[in-house]
Amino acid sequence: MADFYTEICSEGWFSRIGGSINGILFGLVAIPMCVILLWWNEGRAVTAAIVAVAADKVNAANDKKLIRHIEIYQWVENKKVEKKEYVGGSEETKTA
């Protein structure tokens, strides 16, 4: 004769809602903790990789390294273009 074993579990509506609320509360705590840990870890990694360089010469050893403070200078160009069309189809363009 064979032995049979049957287990029946029932879960009510309130217990399922309670489990969902527990999951939401866990997520509300876990997400800010993960953000804080990620912020801290990335901050440590960046601080360790920063190098200081002199501005008077280029050093090939600093290629592809992270520099803390840089200055970039660029030109500002003001351009004014005037076009005149004349009878007969000719055009005159004046750039100042």
Description:
- This protein has one domain.
- It has 1 helix and 4 strands.
- It has one helix at 13-49; strands at 50-51, 66-67, 81-85, 91-95.
- Strands 1-2 form a two-stranded parallel sheet. Strands 3-4 form a two-stranded antiparallel sheet.
- It starts with 12 loop residues before the first helix and ends with a strand.
- The mean pLDDT is 87.
Low-confidence stretches: none
Shape label: elongated
Sheet/helix structural class: alpha+beta
Measured between the Cα atoms of the first and last residue, the distance is: 105 Å
Biggest beta sheet attributes: 2 strands, parallel
Rounded to the nearest angstrom, the radius of gyration is 35 Å
Estimate the mean pLDDT confidence: 87
Number of domains: 1
Helix % is 25-40%
Looking at how many chains there are and whether they match, the oligomeric state comes to: single chain
Provide the succession of SSEs: HEEEE
Order of strands, widest sheet? 1-2
Number of strands: 4
Portion of residues in beta strands equals: 5-15%
Task: Quickly count the helices.
Answer: 1
